[in-house]
Amino acid sequence: MIIVMKKGALPEQVQAVIGRISDLGYRAHVSQGAETTIIGVIGDERRVSENVFHMMSGVDTVVRVLKPFKLASREFHPDDTIVPVNGIRLGARSVAIIAGPCAVESRDQILESAWAVKEAGGHIFRAGAFKPRTSPYSFQGMGIEGLDLLAEVRQLTGLAIITEVMAPEQVPDVAATADILQIGTRNMQNYNLLHAVGASLKPALLKRGMMSTMEELLMSAEYILSHDNPHVILCERGIRTFERYTRNTLDISAVPVLKELTHLPVMIDPSHACGKAAWVNALSRAAIAAGADGLLIEAHPHPELALSDGPQSLTPEQLYDLVADVQQVAAAVGRDLV
Ligand code: PEP
Ligand code: MN
Predict the structure, then answer these.
(1) Is the N end or the C end of the chain the one with fewer CB atoms within 10 Å?
(2) CA-269 nearest atom, ligand 1
(3) Distance between Cα 103 and ligand 1 center (Å)
(4) Are 135 and 252 contained in the same domain?
(5) How many domains is the chain partitioned into structurally?
(6) Would you state the pLDDT for residue 15?
(7) Average pLDDT over residues 118-134
(8) Between 99 and 44, where is the model more confident?
(9) Could you tell me if residue 126 is inside a domain?
(10) What is the mean pLDDT of residues 161-183?
(11) Distance 55 CA to ligand 1 centre (A)
(12) Nearest residue by C-alpha to atom 4 in ligand 1
């Protein structure tokens, strides 16, 4: 349920509504817009009637939110959420490009990758230290040693870092190094992990499960938001369909649909969506044209030597071209690059 206060409602009227909400055993979530204040009622609201709030002074309207996600919904928070990361405002007018290799493989590889991303015009550096591999016999990532190398990259290049966290017990170490915690497609419904990432209060990039609906994605975001961690970025990375030419199917409709349903920034990962470097540029342009707030791109200085996801990794030259192409599309839709 949301309670929309009248324009110019007094602070004590807002406080009275908040007090009534907590007296009834619910949690209040206040969203202060430019003109109006919206107060969300959090909890199982089926037991409370709208009339309880209708009659209170300063209240304009009371609306029952039928969607199962509340904090993530546009109704609760009409303005776009902006996630601040190292001076970059994710979700604002400027589109951000996150790029880097699938995995941290060695000190030389990661430093060469990071400088290449910086020179190509990327804004945030990505690389996995903990890798969720389909096969237990594939390279599993460098773990803590990989995090230490990412910390060095951050210090030397000044680039913000995003890296995946796979388990709740890894959250403290990953949060100490990374600016953004990535939750991978396979862990979108790992609720213990979502709780731990929420409690860390670090920005989180939540990837859509490869077989999950948008509503399930938003319910997972709700877990993080419920810890009073407002900094959640959603990422569409392709879903599983009957099509076999591409690794997954990029669901471009996720961009306008999520933008309507939620105030959270929406990013697109075209690399895992299509699985082939040659197709990444076209999907990136489509994503920005559709209104995405940024891209997550896999790029490797030597894709043929990559220990994971080489076929979908761009060379530094391809990344440079992508940044230039995306800039043109961004300008065509009234945006620019960070
Ligand atoms: C990745 O970003 O390298 C990754 C493993 O992504 P996903 O969880 O989307 O497969
Ligand atoms: Mn990958």
Answers:
(1) C
(2) 9
(3) 10
(4) yes
(5) 2
(6) 97
(7) 97
(8) 99
(9) yes
(10) 98
(11) 50
(12) 184
Could you tell me how far CA 127 lies from the centroid of its own chain?
Answer: 16
Owning domain of residue 111? 83-337
Give rounded-to-5 percent helix, strand, coil for the chain: 40, 20, 40
Domain for residue 78, yes or no? no
Ligand 1 atom with the smallest distance to the CA of 296 is 2
Q: Where a domain ends, among 63, 97, 116?
A: 63
Domain of 264, CATH number, reads: 3.20.20.70
Q: What does the pLDDT read at residue 206?
A: 99
Non-local (6+) Cβ contacts of 225 within 8 A are 71, 72, 198, 232
Domain-embedded: residue 228: yes
- What pLDDT score was predicted for residue 47? 84
| Closest ligand to the CA of 98 | 1
Query: Is residue 239 over pLDDT 90?
Result: yes
| 238 lies in some domain | yes
Per-residue pLDDT at 33 exceeds 90: no
Pocket test for ligand 1, best of 134, 240, 269 (most atoms within 8 A of CB): 269
309 Cα–ligand 1 center, Å: 9
32 and 103 assigned to the same domain: no
Tokens, residue 108: 């030389």
| Rounded-to-integer distance, Cα 101 and Cα 114, Å | 9
pTM of structure: 0.96
Q: Dihedral of CA 158/103/267/316: which sign?
A: positive
User: What's the whole-number mean pLDDT along residues 269-295?
Assistant: 98
Q: In 3D, which of 180, 179, 111 has the Cα closest to residue 146?
A: 111
Measured from CB, residues less than 6 Å from any atom of ligand 1 are: 102, 128, 132, 184-186, 207, 237, 269, 272
Report d(CA 100, CA 174) in Å as an integer.
Answer: 17
